[in-house]
Description:
Elements: H1 2-7, H2 14-17, H3 25-57, H4 68-76, H5 101-109, H6 114-135, H7 137-144, H8 155-158, H9 166-178, H10 180-184, H11 193-214, H12 222-225, H13 234-243, E1 250-252, E2 259-261, H14 262-279, H15 288-303, H16 306-324
Antiparallel strand pairs: 1-2
Helix pairs in contact: 3-11, 3-16, 6-7, 6-9, 6-11, 11-13, 11-15, 13-15, 14-15
Amino acid sequence: MLRAQLRRITLPKPSCIFGACPPKRRPTLWALTATATIFLGCATYDVYQDVKAAKRKGFFRSGSVPSYEDLENAKTHNNPLRSPFRSSSSSSSHPLSRWFPIGQLSEILSGFNSAQKVMLGFSALNIGLVGANYVAPAAFLQHFGHVPCLNRNYTLLTSMFGHSGTWHVAMNTFVLVQFATDVAESRVFKGNGSHFAAFYLSAGIFSSLGSQFATMLPTRTYKYNRFVPNLGASGVISASSWVTLDPNGKIGFLFLPGSFPADSFLMALVIIETLGLFFGTPLFNFGHGAHLSGYAIGAAYVYYDGRKRLWLPARRVAFGTMKTLKMV
């Protein structure tokens, strides 16, 4: 079975094997296109959900939404013409549903906001895909490992869900779940699952792209790193850590006494990652390029207010498109 899987792997071109620089233009264009598609897709879904929620409140009885501003107002106000005795369409489900797995899962997740649910969903996907690594390792690395010198642009996206083993996915999932509440309730996402999904996927793509560009730097192992598959969600986790940064907050560690200022700790991590990128890390092969790219993405998204400059304009574009197509 393993031999058959190895035959299906596309070998790199000879020029790449002998040290040619990894591609730059095509992966960058692919990353920009994929990110724009992801943001617009998530924004469209978010607008659609807002329209459904507004109609459940009793707004827009004519069936169409006059403008985007009206939709925003409907999100924050209750319809005064709606009877307080009118039952909501999102009323409680049938009592017997709690005895089925889907009903039990719904009850468990009922206390989480949409951003936390999305984060838990991504964590579950990461854990589930570890099994594929053990069942078909060659095929798994081909589709979920991003090799910088190969022309597989789609692995910029899929590699964030791939992990090398149980220990790798356990550590990333543990850290991701620890950040879940802070990320969901941060001023950037405000509990919006669609916004967080767009950021998560986009940050993963660009952290993988940053890892590819890092193999072009004159580091000790840059030629070797061009052929090493990059896997894991650590780049996204690095970006999320900057999103949740509280200048007055502190970070504590398991098995270590005391705590450290959050901003000082993250700056120390940036220095350590930079040293590791150029001089290497003994006994370990960390994705320093992906980590540094994640820190930069998260810091830029917070500093330049990605919610105001990217997410809200994407919602407006999505609403305008849906309005033109008479979907709202």
